[in-house]
Automatic annotation (TrEMBL):
Entry-linked InterPro entries: KdpC
Family affiliation: Belongs to the KdpC family.
Compartments, as annotated in UniProt: Cell membrane
Function: Part of the high-affinity ATP-driven potassium transport (or Kdp) system, which catalyzes the hydrolysis of ATP coupled with the electrogenic transport of potassium into the cytoplasm. This subunit acts as a catalytic chaperone that increases the ATP-binding affinity of the ATP-hydrolyzing subunit KdpB by the formation of a transient KdpB/KdpC/ATP ternary complex.
Membrane-protein topology: Single-pass membrane protein
Gene for this chain: kdpC
Protein name: Potassium-transporting ATPase KdpC subunit
Main location group: membrane
Quaternary organization: The system is composed of three essential subunits: KdpA, KdpB and KdpC.
Keyword annotations from UniProtKB, A to Z: ATP-binding, Cell membrane, Ion transport, Membrane, Nucleotide-binding, Potassium, Potassium transport, Transmembrane, Transmembrane helix, Transport
One family name in Pfam for this protein: KdpC
């Protein structure tokens, strides 16, 4: 009898908190996000409309896509690593990535920007630095039969500055540049 008397308030509290936190709170946050941040709440999906009227979803602007062909702007390496920046394993990974870049673009004698050979904290960062984009301009222009200025123009179009003019660093949206290079946007 005593157990039933003590268990009842605990079960009632559990039920109330489940409804409040599990259902009402979730519904409220989802509703607010759909009203205020609809695009972001739905994954920032980039869709391309074909001439016949069909819509093709190309991917999310929030997640890096893998581009490895010479005609594309290549982003940061994928994968999260908790290796120390001075560990032997990290140095080996960086050297493998440097070797890959020399294979992809053997004529490029410029120094490879660090964000092209080191992973981001999330492992899915869709942006690179303007310096990393500039490193790739000549290769992309040559592979596509474009001028370097045409490639730079597309890169500049999808380069964002510092937030509020002083926070963070400028960044290039790799996915959007590649869609523009393909003439899809």
């Amino acid at each position: 009898m005593k157990l039933k008397k003590e268990l009842r308030p605990a079960l009632i509290c559990f039920g109330i908190m489940t409804v409040l936190c599990g259902a009402l709170y979730t519904a409220a946050i989802t509703g607010i996000s759909q009203l205020v941040f609809k695009d972001q709440a739905n994954g920032s999906i980039v869709a391309v409309h074909q001439k016949n009227g069909t819509k093709i979803e190309m991917g999310s602007r929030l997640l890096a896509q893998s581009f490895t062909k010479p005609e594309y702007l290549v982003g940061r390496p994928a994968g999260v690593s908790n290796l120390s920046p001075v560990s032997k394993e990290e140095k080996t990974l960086v050297q493998e990535r440097i070797d890959w870049w020399h294979t992809l673009d053997p004529e490029n004698e410029k120094e490879i920007p660090m964000d092209l050979v080191t992973g981001s904290g999330s492992g899915v960062d869709p942006h690179i630095t303007p310096q990393a984009a500039e490193y790739q301009v000549t290769r992309i222009a040559k592979a596509r039969g474009m001028t370097e200025e045409e490639v730079r123009h597309m890169i500049n179009k999808y380069t964002s500055g510092r937030l509020l003019g002083f926070m963070g660093e400028p960044s290039v949206d790799v996915f959007m540049v590649n869609l523009a290079l393909d003439g899809l946007i």
